[in-house]
Hints:
It contains 5 helices and 5 strands. It is an alpha+beta fold. The longest helix is centred in the middle third of the chain and has 11 residues, at 82-92. It starts with a strand and ends with a helix.
Amino acid sequence: MIELSDDPARLDLARIHGWLASSYWSPGIARDLVERAVAGSHCLGAYRNGAQIGYARAISDRATFAWIADVWIDEAARGAGLGRRMVQWFIEHPDYQGLRRIALVTLDAHGVYQALGFHAPLRPERYMERLDPAFAAALRS
Length: 141
């Protein structure tokens, strides 16, 4: 059985850092940045037999907007719907009810999130972002 918990004391920061440092969206991310991101977010862990096998976080004002980020499932646990279950957990959480927008970015899991009601921006011409120059260079390469 897989348990989901937002208890920050259960998070395995070393494991989370390893996962994120190996991801396509934050390759080589420094441990201190992961720790700051965790501290400023509502984090969710997935656990099997006490070991962390998944991670996701939400950044939100809990009034109008939330951003889901860093959804990661350990390779051995992939393919069973756990990523979708974790995002669904945030969607159903009382703190995120009534929000006008919940957003996320993905390279290859569109189908996972479409099943939860996510879609491409209705007005993409209004969407803008400001990237750190080094991060933008990494994305372009």
